[in-house]
Amino acid sequence: MKKLYSQMTEAELQEEMRLARAELERAEFPSQRAVAERKLVTAGAYLLNPADYGPGLYKVDGVQIPFEVAYINGIMAWGKLGDGTEASFPISMLTRF
Length: 97
Fold this sequence. Notes:
By secondary structure, the protein is α+β, with helices and mostly antiparallel strands. The protein folds into two domains: 5-46; 50-96, Hypothetical protein YfhH like domains (SH3 type barrels, Roll), CATH 2.30.30.340. The protein has two helices and five strands. It starts with 9 loop residues before the first helix and ends with a strand.
């Protein structure tokens, strides 16, 4: 059985990301692409330090609306999009405005 991302070493996470990129290249259907993209983003989040992502305004990859982070729980940032919709995203998808 595969390890959880939270149990992997940095090298193992980088290998998972390499495999996810290869899956992206081979994806034939949108659902396959979506799964590979999510693996890539999630594995990448475990390589980052959640303490570097405090409350504030962020841009989210693939989302046009600003995201106001209220708090971080593990690798996930929780808050509200600019239109007031509650949301959460892996920290690897965030860029500070």
